[in-house]
Amino acid sequence: MDHTSLDIFRVVAAELSVTRAAKRLGRVQSNVTTRIQQLEEELGVALFRRDGNRLTLSTEGERFLGYANRMLALADEARQVLSPQAPSGTLRIGSMESTAAARLPGPLAALHVQYPDVQLRISTAPSRQLIEQVRSGLLDCAFAALPPCGEMASAADLEAAGLHGEPVFREEILLVLPPGHAAVRQGADIAVRSLAAFAQGCSYRVLAEEWLGQDTSPLDIQEVGSYHSMLACVAAGGCVSLVPRSVLELLREAPEFRTQVVAKVDTWLVHRNGYETAAFKALREALTPFVSKQLAAKRKSS
């Protein structure tokens, strides 16, 4: 179960094709096939189901993939910690879509310019999944909003789970209503009873369901995959949604939505306790001027 075999397995699992995996790895197909067969013999299980030239991960393969990702990440972390002279290696960053779009381009560009040897891998998901992926080792860190309720709703809850978090951005969360909708003060005032939101696990969705669902008729949840889709649903008059103001400000020509501030929610940078690679420290340094800029703007407006 050496590093090379784990890496080959991970690429084959991603491509689900020995041919594509071999090309991506710069290896001959026979070598990739042999490595996978040797790994399966060592583990005593079939990692893939084979139907002609078609590959799919077996149940055991899906479970092993998580371990392989964590072992490879831990090896990379060890190399970075033992050679801290300059940030390098891979940094796997998870983020809410809103943060990735509105907050991270500046810091990540600055980090890349200063430390080009750091390979940044960015993925997006709802907050609950992001926190779990950090806890399980699939991500090195994540930008997430702590859920209003649940098992990790505070810094103390994170610490109990072996994680550490600190607020880095504060988002003003807006209720976005279709153009022409009457003013609202509470959930009962909303005429449209359909909510455009991300899948379960999104902290903003939990906030929306709590704010909109009190003492009113049931909500119809329309799950979508992006804020652009949410805003399109609202513009069409069929839905309402909760959207960070920073996302709405990205639109060049936003429709004349009616908006109302519902809450102010912190975005936390979450990582495992003790995770302090040079690349992660560089990320925190790159964030500092952008966080300071937001704090200064907040003081000016208050």
From TrEMBL:
Q: Where are the transmembrane segments?
A: none
* InterPro entries (alphabetical): LysR_HTH_N, LysR_subst-bd, WH-like_DNA-bd_sf, WH_DNA-bd_sf
List, for all copies, the residue spans of the domain called HTH lysR-type: 1-58
Pfam families listed in its UniProt record: HTH_1, LysR_substrate
**Molecular function GO labels:** DNA-binding transcription factor activity; transcription cis-regulatory region binding
Does the record bear Transcription regulation in its keywords? yes
Q: Organism's domain of life? A: Bacteria
Which Gene3D superfamilies did the record assign?
3.40.190.290, Winged helix-like DNA-binding domain superfamily/Winged helix DNA-binding domain
Keyword S-adenosyl-L-methionine in annotation: no
- Give the record's keywords alphabetically: DNA-binding, Transcription, Transcription regulation
Family label: Belongs to the LysR transcriptional regulatory family.
Q: Which protein, by its recorded name, is this?
A: LysR-family transcriptional regulator
Q: Which organism is it from?
A: Caballeronia sordidicola
